[in-house]
Design goal:
Chain lengths: 169, 64
């Protein structure tokens, strides 16, 4: 099932969830051509924010991705407080909620490396391309080598574009 | 807290992978709006889903 980014992202933004889009969707926003299936977000682990996430996603049947149905998984604030990172499936598609990112830290650590991007009539925070590279390098997974190479190529292509079309003073 | 990737040394493994990156696709995407980039991702996902369904169906036919 294709993930409805056009519904999931506005849903979280309208619920005033504090989140930063990371991973493949952030890469896509920066110009990547690679396929990604889920929405990865770093979320702030405050009581209020956890409450907002739980309420926003509750109508969409969040459940542990890949796990058999019938497990004692409760979608509530206590579950999020007791855990940290969650890979979930919902009726809108797959979403990963990350309280901490390898090589990047928490939402507050990532915040200085986030840029505002506007889509679906929402202003959202996306991890910048340089930090995305840093995070993927830190993960050290061979499957990320191609993604890192593409992100570095994006940085180079953007520089070429800026050189050709310098911003007016 | 963290140094940025700009300060990272080039990695010879990544440099090798970079030679195979299709830059025409990147340039094409950079011409799109942020929303258009996400819309094309959803279309790509739908295409990949259809492809997988067809593959499963064809494999099932072969087994029979």
């Amino acid at each position: 099932m294709a993930t409805r980014f056009d519904e999931l992202i506005p849903l979280l933004a309208q619920a005033q969830v504090e989140f930063i889009i990371i991973g493949g969707v952030a890469a896509r926003v920066h110009g990547s051509a690679r396929l990604t299936e889920d929405l990865d977000i770093a979320y702030r682990r405050t009581h209020e924010n956890i409450q907002r996430i739980v309420q926003a996603l509750a109508p969409y049947d969040p459940y542990v991705r890949g796990a058999p149905r019938g497990l004692p998984f409760q979608w509530d604030e206590r579950t999020i407080h007791n855990g940290l990172n969650f890979t979930l499936t919902t009726t809108l598609g797959s979403i990963d909620l990350l309280g901490e990112v390898t090589g990047g830290g928490t939402y507050d650590d990532l915040l200085p490396h986030a840029v505002i991007r506007e889509f679906y009539r929402q202003r959202c925070l996306c991890l910048d391309v340089e930090m995305l590279i840093r995070v993927k390098r830190a993960a050290g997974r061979p499957k990320d080598f191609e993604a890192i190479a593409e992100l570095e190529a994006i940085v180079e292509e953007r520089r070429l574009l800026e050189d050709r079309n310098p911003p007016s003073q | 807290m963290f140094e940025t990737a700009k300060q990272l040394e080039p990695d010879p493994v990544i440099e090798a992978y970079k030679k195979d990156v299709d830059r025409t696709l990147i340039r094409e995407n950079l011409r799109l709006s942020f929303e258009e980039r996400l819309e094309s991702l959803m279309r790509l996902q739908e295409f990949a889903d259809e492809l997988q369904k067809d593959l499963r169906k064809n494999n099932g036919n072969k087994i029979r």
